[in-house]
Design a protein that fits this description.
9-stranded antiparallel β-sheet; about 30% strand; 8-stranded mixed β-sheet; about 375 residues; D-amino Acid Aminotransferase, Chain A, domain 1; binds pyridoxal-5'-phosphate; single chain; alpha+beta; D-amino Acid Aminotransferase, Chain A, domain 2; 2 domains
Amino acid sequence: MSEPRSAEELEAILKDPGFCRYSTGHTAVVDWDAETGWSEPRVEPWSDLVMDPATLGLHYGQAVFEGLKAFRSADGSVHLFRPEDHGRRLARSAARLAMAEMPATLFSRACAALVAADQRWVPGGYGQSLYLRPLLIATEPDLGLRPSKSYRCVILAYPADPCFGAGFRPLSVTTSTETVRAVRGGTGESKCAGNYAAGLLTRTEAQAAGYDEVLWLDGLERSRIEELSTMNVFLVWRDGARARVTTPPCDGTIVRGLTRDSLLTLAEDRGLAVAQEHTTIDAVRTGLRSGELAEVFACGTAGVVVPVSRLGTGGEDMTVGDGGEGPMTALLRNSLLDVQHGRTPDTHGWLRTITWADENGGRGA
Ligand SMILES: *Cc1c(COP(=O)(O)O)cnc(C)c1O
């Protein structure tokens, strides 16, 4: 996990980075303790986290994370995509677990300091990025059940293709009648480590049955579709000659995806009919059968926008559309990537340009 020695080695990595295969060898670290509050961000060489085995975060799961990206524009400039919005979500995730809430501006500054230090690691290909993975974890050693009095935020960085590959290979998904991901009032909206552990068993079973992912249903009636394990879900309906784009609403059980939010905004900008509404799995099945449901796609920072081509549910295995990528899926993905790579104007203020000042933690020193 150390920096490559040569420019040639780096060039070879950036041509085919995969997803999280090579770290930049640096992290940004911000600490909090009850007495001194938040520290300034430090960019450090990658190193092990050393923890007492009685650390609260390890036993009781006070651990939350984020995932965000920096993109390169054609003119060579580098931009973080919606870093303060990711910071606000990290704070909300933390608040749900009674953890310290980092100010979004500090979070953004820490991310920018790391990207500034690792600028040469930001690939330039369309869809490529530097993927940042901030982790916030309780660090105080104690076995009494209570909120920790100290936390560490450590931000990792990896050059990346979209996580399902540069070709946006379609996904197959299946539903579960046994387990659920979230119920209202639980932690489903928080990007907390435990949510992903709780989904792993079912995800592994889905994969053994030949599917890539689980399409989670609501926790009470198990009738409405919610999201995948790491991505939100969209449906594209044929409505006469027009298309209608829908996605389940954020009412406490799904992660408030920033990709989801960006796509809703970009779709509205284009005058498309969009709605945040519940859809039952029965309606999905009926729609696929009649052809009224023309496209299904998943979206998230890591994977961007990925078509869903196959759905296994209730003993049936159904193909979505013709099993390839639909035109609306491609249109929305390209609309988003065009903003991220600076090809179309950033009318919503989503890009934070990395400047010389960021190399000093944004203090301009
Ligand atoms: C992170 C995540 C998403 C997507 O959020 P983005 O902000 O778009 O990356 C969706 N669902 C779950 C469960 C997630 O963890």
